[in-house]
Each structure stands twice: as structure tokens, then as C-alpha cells.
């Protein structure tokens, strides 16, 4: 039978994708991520898992994205996307890890059989997988490993080409909802642009256009895709000036540019020379994150990160919900431990919204946001979106305004449900969301920034021998292991006014991340580097102790 699994065929294909010895792979914050030359066998096996997942879910189309997002160009990665565009169900991450670590062809077949039996999978069901990749030079070879894995299990394969990560999430949902009441849109790149552009024009209609927005595209896939989106929107509605848009020259991706560089370094990206009153934003390498920034009268760099976007979006949506008379719809915000303390205070005390804190990773934020009628979730690093529940969608679609003002607010809410990517954080969609709000409010970036002042904060990376010895609790705000380290961090924190610091292992890079905030810039930097030094000394630091600002 065409769809049944042929184990000899899998073994024969697997011979060409052997697992390297002595490597332990882990499905991390956003899938597998590491040096690209270690990923061939992993990607082959992720193809196999995608097929099994599709068979398990009644032949629904599963998405697979080959990208390493914000990581340096020599890295790559892969993640699976579930049918409605959400991240792979967490219980299946363990299967991904098991498959990736099966050493021989026989081990691989054993793991496949285990997954099938544990999940009661009907082997004869057809399977369908859509995949895409970003612009990394290692992409094409990894795609062919993926295709080998998919073919070994006779899946229906849809090649979506070079795309942003959120476009792959979008199209996965489109395929699975086509022709249903929940149809998410046309399953094409063109369909994506049209949906966003139409919604954007509806929200800004009648409002004067803002000054141009400079976009640092991290020399990644966001550059050509933003250019395409801008064409659909039209220059009369939004004027975009792209910088760092060279996605074909090797070595440039994410190099001294992009959202992660700007957020971590708290400075302008390479090639960006904006002046007072200019407006700018940075995407990351696969365009799923965005941060905004500007320079003040005195040339000081000012960052508007994911926390600020959450505040802006939350405030706008709350106003619309109130004006529309939809008080029955509750709005909530989800953050992580990286959220600036001032942002949480602003959300809770000024906007009066409930705020939840969850571990890092869009998958955690997304699930928590689903608990609200309208769930706004943003990581400080610029990764986030707004989710509308079925209840909210139905209400917004069906309600009729009693006054012109109410009707106008309802129309805007309706357009927002199309403008905002409901599957995952999306730099292009988030850019339009921010631009739509600022256009409506006729605000400058400085006016937006005035909602609250960030506590000075600093992120430091520490390289250690084994980051997996770090175990956390309380939404990653406390270390459980190595034993005793948290007490020493607490002691340091207590010496600084408004001090806060936490340590966690990264799930996308081979480092431990240290975050600190305090009342002044000087104190914050000292605290961050003292904690980083502590981690380095007590937990196997290698390759030089971080010591700036000490
Ligand atoms: C990924 C995840 C984000 C996470 C980031 C950093 O982003 O999707 O949710 O915040 O990694 O994670 P960590 O601190 O564990 O390395 P991206 O943009 O790289 O896909």
C-alpha cells in the first residue's frame, strides 16, 4: 500500500543520513538548533516525525521550518508546526529528541515503532507536510535531507520555498482550514500579503500617513518579504525604507544587525544612522521578531521592545473594546521573566489588565494567552502576537454598533483579527500592528515611549562547560541547580536598589543567559556582570569571564 510504512525503505534512506557519534540532540526552545553541519541526520528524522504526526492527526498537514532565526549564519535549525500553525505539541518534543538520538538504522526503526504504538497511529493513513526555509547558505542541503525523510515514508510533500517562519505557520493553518468555517486564508504567499494589506488599509483609512519607517531586515528573509508586503500596502499608506537587506552575501545574516543585536546591545544596528524624529525597527533573521527604536534630541538611543509593543497593543485593544461596548470580552497579557519590571507595573496598574508570567518560548506564551478572550503575548525580545478566542471572534464578527463611534471601533477590531497573525509572533504583521496603532493615535515613537520608563536592564551570555546542569523553577526566575547558586545571586541582588536578576540556560544557543535590572544604569550593569562572574566561577565557565563594567 502506497501510504503504509516500509521499514526497509526507511533504513535504506537513513544510511545516507547517519547520526554523528557522541552528540546528544535536544528539542529546545524553538526546535533543534546548532551548527548546521551537525544537523543532517536530525532533519532527516524530523521529516519522519512530521509524517507520523500527520498520520496521527488524520492526515492534517504538518509544517516544518528550517531556520535558526536570530542565531549566527553558520547555525541552522528545524522545528515542527502543528495544524493550526501553533508550535508542536509539547509531549511530541520528546519523540523528536528520541528520534534524533537513535544511533543506528535499527534503533531508528525501533523508535518509530514505539511512537506508532504509543500513539495508536494508523500507518495506512496518508500524510502531508509543508516545508520552508530561510536564506541561510546551509538551507538547500538540509532541505534535501528533509525531503529524503519525507519520501522514505511516502508523504505528500509541499515545498513552500524560501519564506519567513511566520509565513510557514500561516500557510500550515490555511491548508488545514481551507473550505471550513474557520478558513484562515489563501494558502499562498500572495494570500498572506493580501490579507495583511487589506486589513491594514481598513484600520488606517482616513488618517494621515506617518513619516517613513526604516527597517533593518538583519540581512535575512524579511528583506525581500517586507518589500513584497510594502508593494501590496502601497506607499500612500506606509513608507518603508529597508536597510540591512542584503540577504544574498554570505556572512551578513544577523551580523551586527537585527532585533537580537539591537535588543541585547541596546544600540543601533550597523548601517543605521537615524536622526532625531526618525523612526526605525529591526527584524531578526527569519522575521518573527521586531523591536522599534529612535534617538532622542541629545542622541540617546531609545529602545521600544516587546514589552513596549505589548503595552501599546494592549492599550489600543482595551480602548476599542470599551468604545465598542464589548465589556464582556476580557483582555490579558502574557510575559516572561525578561519583561521589564516597569512594563509589568504599567500593565497591571495603568491598563488594569491581568498579567501572567511563563517560561521563555513562544509555545508557553501562546498557550497561556489562549486563556483570555483577547490574549496579548510578547517576549521582551520582540517575539509576540495577539490571540482572539473563538468567543471574541464570534462577538466581533456579529455585533452591531449602536452609534457611529461604536461601529467604527468594531470595524477596527474586525480588521485587527485579520491583521494580526494568529499563529505565531510575526515581524511583518507586528510591524503593521504597531504602524496601524501609531497612525490611529498619530503618535511619534517618543509619545509611545512615554507610557512608562524602563528600569535599566542588561543581558549577558556566559559560556559554560555544560549548560544542562542549570535547572530553574518559578517561570525561570529561580535556579534550583546548581545547588546554592540562587542564594548567592539573592545576596548580590539585595545590594542594589530595585535589583532583580535571574539565570537560565538558553534553549537556542550553547550559553547561559543572565538578566539583571536595577534603579540606575551603573548599578544594573554591575549587578549583571557580578552575577555573570558568579555563574562563571561556580558553574564551569569557559573561554573568558564576562567582565565589562566591573
Ligand atoms: C526563540 C524562541 C523565543 C525565545 C528565543 C530565545 O526565538 O522562539 O521564544 O525567546 O528563542 O530563547 P532562549 O533564551 O531559550 O535561547 P527565535 O527568534 O530565535 O526563534
List the helices and strands and how they pair.
Elements: H1 7-14, E1 32-35, H2 40-56, E2 61-66, E3 75-81, H3 90-101, H4 105-118, E4 128-133, H5 139-152, E5 156-162, H6 165-177, H7 189-204, E6 213-216, H8 222-233, E7 240-243, H9 259-265, E8 279-283, E9 290-295, E10 301-304, H10 306-323, E11 331-335, H11 341-350, E12 355-357, H12 362-369, E13 374-378, E14 384-388, H13 390-398, H14 404-419, H15 427-441, H16 445-449, E15 457-462, E16 471-473, E17 478-481, H17 485-493, E18 500-505, E19 512-517, H18 521-538
Parallel strand pairs: 2-4, 4-5, 6-7, 6-8, 11-12, 11-13
Antiparallel strand pairs: 1-3, 2-3, 8-9, 9-10, 13-14, 15-19, 16-17, 18-19
Bound molecules: 1,6-di-O-phosphono-alpha-D-glucopyranose.
Residues 29-30, 69-70, 284, 288-289, 360-362, 379, 381, 383, 506-509, 513 line the site of 1,6-di-O-phosphono-alpha-D-glucopyranose.
Could you please describe the fold and organization of this structure?
By secondary structure, the chain is of the alpha/beta class. The chain folds into four domains: 7-162, Alpha-D-Glucose-1,6-Bisphosphate, subunit A, domain 3 (Alpha-D-Glucose-1,6-Bisphosphate, Chain A, domain 3), CATH 3.40.120.10; 191-304, Alpha-D-Glucose-1,6-Bisphosphate, Chain A, domain 3, CATH 3.40.120.10; 306-422, Alpha-D-Glucose-1,6-Bisphosphate, subunit A, domain 3 (Alpha-D-Glucose-1,6-Bisphosphate, Chain A, domain 3, 3-Layer(aba) Sandwich), CATH 3.40.120; 457-538, Alpha-D-phosphohexomutase, C-terminal domain (TATA-Binding Protein), CATH 3.30.310. The chain has 18 helices and 19 strands. It has helices at 7-14, 40-56, 90-101, 105-118, 139-152, 165-177, 189-204, 222-233, 259-265, 306-323, 341-350, 362-369, 390-398, 404-419, 427-441, 445-449, 485-493, 521-538; strands at residues 32-35, 61-66, 75-81, 128-133, 156-162, 213-216, 240-243, 279-283, 290-295, 301-304, 331-335, 355-357, 374-378, 384-388, 457-462, 471-473, 478-481, 500-505, 512-517. The strands form five sheets. Strands 1-3-2-4-5 form a five-stranded mixed beta sheet, sandwiched between helices. A five-stranded mixed beta sheet has the order 7-6-8-9-10, with helices on both faces. A four-stranded mixed beta sheet has the order 12-11-13-14, sandwiched between helices. Bound molecules: 1,6-di-O-phosphono-alpha-D-glucopyranose. 1,6-di-O-phosphono-alpha-D-glucopyranose is lined by residues 29-30, 69-70, 284, 288-289, 360-362, 379, 381, 383, 506-509, 513.
